[in-house]
Specification:
heterodimer; A: mainly alpha; 11 helices; B: about 70% helix; globular
């Protein structure tokens, strides 16, 4: 079944040659940061679409999975990770635009439930297609040779180079995105449409096009996350289930539709995952849901969401 | 009073269902049991979604809690009558529904969907990790040899399919009838008014919070009953009963039949079970076929099969009438 969690490759089992508890903490912080950035790459598209169109797009996380599998496929053909990093996100962006154009736009306005169900059904179909083509076993993707090995951070703490690469790349991508949102005309249109869709439309912004572009950008981000996650956690069809609840937790805690809130929340969720698995393995799974429930019960608008 | 066509159809249906296992087709008897249980589950979900307009995405929690509670009772108290364990399942579902309803009391729309999803995932995680009580990943089993004693009919084992059929049919009919009655009471009408406009209902002096709590508890009771019946049928319980995919299966059933009318979920669960069974015998990729069918249905007939048939009966065509142009972007 599609939502059964896959065989989760334990996120923090590698690189545990550090022996005392004290020196583990900075490493864990870094792990959490890396994972948090990854989640944010996926969740940012989700939260933007939510803010813009009021749709919880279940298919968004499938796009992330498609990105990872495209990366695998491109590497099978060309054996170049860098090429895959260029191509796969673009393919994902196209997929996102197609989803917006042919599913979401068709059904937009016919009620929350239908929108949710349509994207959910789509996620089901995509997961099944991926399962059909690639099977359900994890597929290994090799990191490029430049990024193998680890870096000596300080005294005797080693950290894998690839994870640092994830950190840097996602940081760059996010900086680029914030630049677009804050400094360009497109960004103004997006922010205006998020704030008040009808008003922006009335004032001459083509909200339909903006929605399509936002879906495209979101899918592109998710595609990047899919590619860079491939050598880190390997590629498997359970990726969807592993990522979706983390993403949901992020957009719930951050406030539905808020990008800044989602950023803080994803760093938080990353740390919770990273520390929880080591220090409280018994309840770490529950912790993330508990966080969500607490936010919903106490402050449904999240850290910095717009109020209902 | 002259009996109406509806009543006669209903009575005929009950008679047919009662005589069905006598045909001796084990395969269909087996599938029908599953359909009945899912019908109760889907109807309990209808109470939330279709009737009150509460979009819950964590209905599996109620189902699973009922299943676990009755499983634990079955194991711990080996001399308790089986019918009572079903009730225990229902009551624990009720409690769980009440608690969930309490936590998500003020949430609406996507927030509600999210909140219930998070809660059900939390319960799933607890069932997964709390090995001492729930058996963790392995789940619980060990009541397949249970006997059910009736004072004047004698003893039956749970493995006896024909007996199980009647047992489940009895409970399913009772539950569905109770739900039907519930939607017809004044309180049921109140719930409908919440669906059509919650703010308005609030202004009219209806205590929306209390009504929502009650419908959550009621729906939880029904879902818990179906969970308890389901484990008598499957003879095991596992954390997958509680997870997101079960919640969505319930949704799929409701949507296939149509979540806007009472009959929809029942028809939907029959269609779902039979489709699942036949598709999986044809192709290994049955979930793909199911998914495509589901998406097409949402895109073209979001009101489900029952409405589609009704419309066909009325107009003799499946083509939807054109509505006015919507201005909203």
């Amino acid at each position: 079944m599609m939502f059964r969690r896959g065989v989760i490759p334990e996120r923090n089992e590698r690189n545990q040659n550090v022996d005392n508890q004290l020196s583990i903490i900075p490493v864990l912080l870094l792990h959490g940061l890396v994972y948090g950035m990854l989640i944010f790459l996926v969740a940012s598209g989700l939260t933007l679409v939510l803010g813009l169109m009021d749709i919880l797009n279940f298919a968004h996380v499938s796009v992330y999975m498609v990105g990872a599998f495209t990366c695998y496929q491109v590497m099978q053909w060309t054996n170049s990770f860098w090429f895959a990093l260029m191509v796969a996100p673009v393919a994902c962006a196209f997929l996102g635009i197609l989803i917006e154009r042919f599913i979401i736009r068709r059904i937009h306005g016919s009620g929350h439930l239908n929108e949710l169900l349509a994207t959910f059904g789509l996620a089901m179909v995509i997961t099944e297609v991926v399962n059909w083509i690639y099977g359900s076993n994890p597929l290994p993707v090799r990191a490029p040779s430049q990024l193998l090995g680890s870096l000596n951070l300080w005294s005797d703490v080693q950290y894998p180079l690839y994870r640092l690469f994830i950190l840097v790349l996602s940081g760059m991508v996010l900086a680029f995105m914030f630049y677009i949102l804050r400094k360009t005309r497109l960004g103004i249109s997006i922010r205006a449409s998020v704030q008040d869709r009808d008003m922006a439309n009335a004032l001459g912004t083509n909200v339909a096009t903006v929605s399509m572009v936002v879906m495209g950008i979101g899918a592109w981000l998710a595609g990047i996350a899919g590619v860079i996650v491939a050598p880190y956690l390997s590629v498997y069809s359970g990726m969807y289930a592993d990522m979706i609840m983390d993403c949901f937790a992020v957009i719930a805690v951050g406030g539905l539709g808020s990008l800044g809130g989602a950023f803080i929340a994803s760093l938080l969720v990353g740390q919770v995952q990273s520390f929880g698995v080591i220090f409280i393995p018994r309840v770490s799974l529950i912790l993330i849901y508990l966080l969500m429930v607490a936010v919903f019960a106490l402050k449904p608008s999240g850290i910095s969401g717009k109020n209902e | 009073m002259k009996p109406s066509v509806k009543t006669i159809t209903l009575l005929l249906l009950v008679v047919v269902l009662a005589l069905f296992p006598l045909l001796g087709n084990k395969f269909h008897t087996y599938l029908f049991i599953e359909c009945f249980i899912y019908s109760v589950l889907a109807v309990s979900y209808y109470m939330l979604l279709g009737h009150t307009g509460l979009m819950s995405f964590g209905h599996a929690a109620l189902f699973g809690v009922g299943a676990y509670a009755s499983a634990i009772t079955l194991i711990r108290f080996s001399d308790l009558p089986v019918a009572l364990t079903v009730l225990v399942g229902g009551l624990s579902g009720l409690l769980c529904g009440f608690l969930i309803g309490l936590i998500v009391l003020r949430l609406t729309k996507i927030y509600l969907a999210f909140g219930t999803l998070a809660l059900s995932q939390m319960i799933w995680a607890i069932a997964w990790k709390w090995r001492a009580v729930t058996g963790g990943d392995d789940g619980l089993t060990g009541w397949s040899a249970r006997q059910v004693t009736f004072p004047w009919l004698g003893q039956f084992g749970l493995i006896n399919i024909t007996f199980l059929y009647y047992f489940v049919l009895f409970f399913a009919l009772a539950c569905v009838a109770l739900c039907w009655y519930f939607t017809r009471t004044p309180f049921g009408e109140t719930l409908s008014s919440i669906r059509s406009n919650q703010n308005r209902a609030d202004f009219l002096g209806i205590n929306v919070g209390r009504a929502r709590l009650m419908v959550f508890a009621f729906s939880g009771f029904m879902a818990g009953m179906s969970g308890a019946l389901f484990i008598l049928f499957k003879k095991a319980v596992a954390p997958t009963f509680l997870d997101m995919s079960t919640s969505f299966n319930i949704l799929v059933m409701s949507v296939i039949g149509g979540y806007t009318n009472f009959l929809g979920p029942i028809v939907g669960s029959f269609v779902y079970v039979y489709m699942m069974e036949y598709l999986s015998s044809f192709t290994e990729r049955w979930q793909l076929v199911m998914g495509i069918f589901f998406v097409l249905l949402i895109l073209f007939y979001p009101k489900g099969i029952v409405r589609m048939v009704q419309q066909f009966a009325k107009k003799g065509s499946f083509i939807k009438e054109k509505r006015g142009v919507r201005i909203k972007c």
